[in-house]
Write a structure and sequence with these properties.
The protein contains 22 helices and 18 strands. The two termini are 24 Å apart. It folds into three domains: 266 residues, Aminopeptidase (3-Layer(aba) Sandwich); 222 residues, Glucose Oxidase, domain 1 (3-Layer(bba) Sandwich); 187 residues, Transferrin receptor-like, dimerisation domain (Transcription Elongation Factor S-II, Chain A, Up-down Bundle), CATH 1.20.930.40. The chain is of the alpha/beta class and 721 residues long. It is 39% helix and 16% strand. The strands form four sheets. A seven-stranded mixed beta sheet has the order 1-11-13-12-14-16-15, sandwiched between helices. Strands 3-2-10-5-6-7-9 form a seven-stranded mixed beta sheet.
Length: 721
Amino acid sequence: MERDWETQFRAIPDPTRLRESLRRLSARPHNVGTAYDRDNAEWILAQFKSYGLSAQIESFDVLYPTPLERSVEMVAPAHFRLALHEPAVAGDPTSAQQSEQLPTYNVYSIDGDVTAPIVYVNYGVPADYAILARHGVSVKGAIVIARYGGSWRGIKPKVAAEHGAVGCLIYSDPRDDGYAEGAVFPKGAMRPAEGVQRGSVMEMEIHPGDPLTPGVGATKDAKRLDLKDVTVLTKIPVLPISYGDAQPLLAAMDGPVVPREWRGALPITYRMGPGPAKVHLHLKSNWGSKTLYDVIARIPGATAPDEWVIRGNHHDAWVNGADDPLAGQVALLEEARALGALVAKGWHPRRTIIYCAWDGEEPGLLGSTEWVETHEDELRKHAVAYFNTDGNGRGFLNLGGSHVLEAFLNGVARDIDDPETHESVWKRLQALQLAGATSASQRADVRTRANLHIDALGSGSDYSPFLQHAGIASTNIGYGGEDQTGVYHSIYDDFYWYTHFSDTNFVYGRALAQTVGTAVMRLADAQLIPYDFTGLSETINQYVGQLDTLAKHEADSIAELNREVRDGVFAATSDPRRPTLAPDTIPLAPHLDFAPLQNGAEALSRAATAYSQAVTAAEANDGAALASPAVASVNPTLVQSERALTSPQGLPGRPWYQHLIYAPGLYTGYGVKTVPGVREAIEQHQWTDADAQIVRVGEVLQAEAALVNRAAQELKAAASR
């Protein structure tokens, strides 16, 4: 009967309604604090209510700086004032809403007024500074210019400041998302010369959410930090610029010619600098607060109302935001409409379903983080899973998330038809992974493994507070890969662009609604929460093997560095993580004892096998035992399984991140670091910390194994009643 309801559900989402909802929501700019942001929230609220759902708006007040003064000019060897502006495009009506558009800037950059030579730092990641040092180039006292890509944008000013830079400019090189990749907007999908990527540079790898209320919800009466005590602002001023504005600066630079892999597609010779180009950067913001409007709707559970399945997508955007985020938001609305229609026909989910339209995601996951922090105690007790989307396009299914949900997500993907190929989206994803496999073993794994691997989650969207702070099993889902995107976070990400260059007939919007809605229904209706620990244990064992390999690689690298310093190949300062030392005095890597981690992983593997066997036994005789009400007694234990992978003390130096298996990297930002306490200690050559974190994560894995064993025993007992 449950599958009959799912079939009925998948017939309801309508591409025409998706299109019209996107048109309405993206009609005007709606960044945080604008009138249309609130208007959209109220419209979404009305939609939820019209579907028969109980819904309300929850508000939070957050620090949200907006620019008052911005200027960048080259003052030597010639004068050039950067436009810092995106012009309207003929035929694209919303691009002309100039008075409502948020200026091009990076939110949470500090104010500043600096004049200095410029240095080109490629993507501005730590490895790029090692190459600069090898060429004798320092950024101390300079303004760096970095291209977007290679890491999250907030890492670029962070690393620049650590190396002594006084300012940072970030531009989009046409090699990455401009004319080198295809025709530029409006003739094509790629970024035009004047296009600029806005974005947050908050140090979200420390914590996301309102900078003034870390760890607590930004409610009216919340205690707030003084601005001087905020730890997640940049240390130097930073602005994004277009490649049209960047070209004269880069062309005026001297110094060593950059390596081939640093070269973009501008018609210039790329050089490192410093100088003779000198730049004056001026930035001043209004450091006021704005109100967020999270829209929360509920479908009460019929038999397990205290177990919650949560679904979210954000509704705020940098400008009009058709692709990011509204292509995902309109799919969410169609899911909610379809579920409301089923409720009207007599369907009632076993568990409570909560639909959320978040505000303030773009500046730093504000709306979702403040909601999670406000309701943290309830969520830790009741939340079964969180399903996230953030925009959508045309192409292949992308799956990331907690590995206890890997088998479950694979099962859902097998039941969704791809709108173009008419095979399952799972089968199409398998073909993509086979085409991308780089070895025979990888191809064999894709062909023969029962489930396709899903990606681990780092950060960059609203799953982060659920998974990495509250320990709630989470996923991030979307379609893409067959559409080019060169208008990210610009005024050109609008209804005109989306309907000409992305999911133009909205069939993948319907597929997204079918995919996530099916997952929500299936998880909400399952008698036994469908976590699978086999995929988790396999993944943990892979991570342990990777860490062992990483430790050996770093030890070899240190030995090689000693040899190069001794032979005079380059100075020890070429690696920014190491001080200037005499030859043969760079400390060698000690032996790390991975036994606690390996023992924990092995204990989890045994427990996963025991639980899998218990599930198989319960599924015998057409799952008669699974239908027993007694099976539900296992669910409270299962709900705590993701929490067991967290620690109240959090990660070293960033206690907000409590998950010890998944986190954004300190120097990757959005990019995930798995087993981050151990991995980053090894990468930073902090060997004492690495030893301590190995023990700590090993203990967490032992605790997880004990919980899974307990669940196996409870399931056996329940199934035998």
